[in-house]
Amino acid sequence: MADDQDHAARPPDAHDRGDGGGEQREPPAPRTVPFTQQVGRIALVVVAVLFVAFTSINVQPVDFHWIFGGTEVVRQGGEYVRGGVPLIVLLLGSFAVGALLGAGLVWWRHRRRTRVADPAGAGRRRPPERRGA
Q1: 87-117 per-position pLDDT tens digit
Q2: What burial class does residue 61 get, using C-beta atoms within 10 Å of its C-beta: 0-12 exposed, 13-18 middle, 19+ buried?
Q3: What is the model's pTM?
Q4: How far apart are the C-alpha atoms of 113 and 119, rounded to whole Å?
Q5: Phi-psi bin for 118: left (phi > 0), alpha (psi -120 to 50), beta?
Q6: Cβ(59)–Cβ(85) under 8 Å?
Q7: 132 — alpha (psi -120 to 50), left (phi > 0) or beta?
């Protein structure tokens, strides 16, 4: 009878909880963003704001010479009449092409590195095995 009272008064330990024993685990520490990544994000925002400001004030039409021709601004008496390409279109187009090329190169490099690190394809997903065949 005294054994039952001692057991009830005693706080539970790892063996009583049924979690396999051992020491208690601490909750994982909150993830922190590295300083260089924070600086990179801030720099990206600054560059994006400057780009938007720069393109929004450059809306005038300009002469643009393509590989197979070109467009020219036609003016009469100093006033714009027709022709040319708005500079904002050229700036946004150049940015989009550069961003796509950059993202494509990063993707290609990452893909190439993972193939070099895992030449046998151990990390690739294998097709499911057929059972009962």
Answers
A1: 888 888 888 999 999 999 999 998 888 877 6
A2: buried
A3: 0.51
A4: 10
A5: beta
A6: no
A7: left
C-alpha distances in Å from residue 2, one per residue of 5, 9, 40: 5, 11, 66
User: How far is Cα 51 from Cα 92, in angstroms, rounded to an integer?
Assistant: 9
Report CA dihedral (8, 12, 17, 22) to the nearest 10 degrees. -150
Among 43-47, 52-56, 74-78, 102-106, the minimum mean pLDDT is found in 74-78
> Residue 124 corresponds to which tokens in the numbers above?
């690739």
**Residue written as tokens 């467009």?**
71
SS3 content of the chain, % helix, strand, coil (to 5): 50, 15, 40
Angle at 100 between CA 95 and CA 103, to 5 degrees: 120
Between CA 71 and CA 57 the distance in angstroms is 21
